[in-house]
Amino acid sequence: MAPAMAIGYAIGRIGCFLVGDDYGRPTDSWVGIAFPKGVPPTNAANLRRFGVDVAPGIPDAQVLRVHPTQLYETGISLVIFLILWRLRRHPRLRGALFPVWLAAAGAERFFVEIFRAKDDRFLGAFTIAQLISIGMIVVGLTVARRISRPSTADA
């Protein structure tokens, strides 16, 4: 199930990219993409509504280039898929792929949230998604570690 979760998430994020949803903060980087017809468009007014610091001199209607966080998530999720696919036949990891995916998906989302245009900062600079991601990482690593250890009954 874990590899399917990773590839499914990657495909879902391509859908977000195609409609111009869930994008990142403005950037002048070569990776920046404008979504003039996004849902919502990447204009200065919408970015300000998300709590993004946009220079006051930029008119509300101006469309800005943003980090394509949907593609970042797609790429990282594809890497996670490839790792899980490779690990799926490892005998010691039987049953541990889901918690490994949980930890990896949590780390991926924590990282991508750094670039996201969001207004849900919860604890200082951290978003709600980053706090949930920390929980995913902790639970995933804890369960994976317990599953991979030989039990005392096996000894």
Percentage of residues in strands: 5-15%
The major β-sheet equals:
2 strands, antiparallel
The backbone outline, from C-alpha atoms, is elongated
How many β strands by DSSP? Answer: 4
The unreliable regions are none
Helical proportion, percent range: 40-55%
Strand order of the largest sheet: 1-2
Class by alpha and beta content: mainly alpha
User: What's the number of structural domains?
Assistant: 1
Multimerization state: single chain
Q: How do the SSEs run, as a string of H and E?
A: HEHEHHEEH
Q: Please tell me the overall pLDDT.
A: 90
Distance between the termini: 29 Å
Helical region count? 5
Overall radius of gyration: 19 Å
Ordered list of secondary-structure elements with their pairings:
Blueprint: H1 2-19, E1 33-34, H2 44-49, E2 65-66, H3 69-87, H4 97-113, E3 121-123, E4 126-127, H5 128-148
Antiparallel strand pairs: 1-2, 3-4
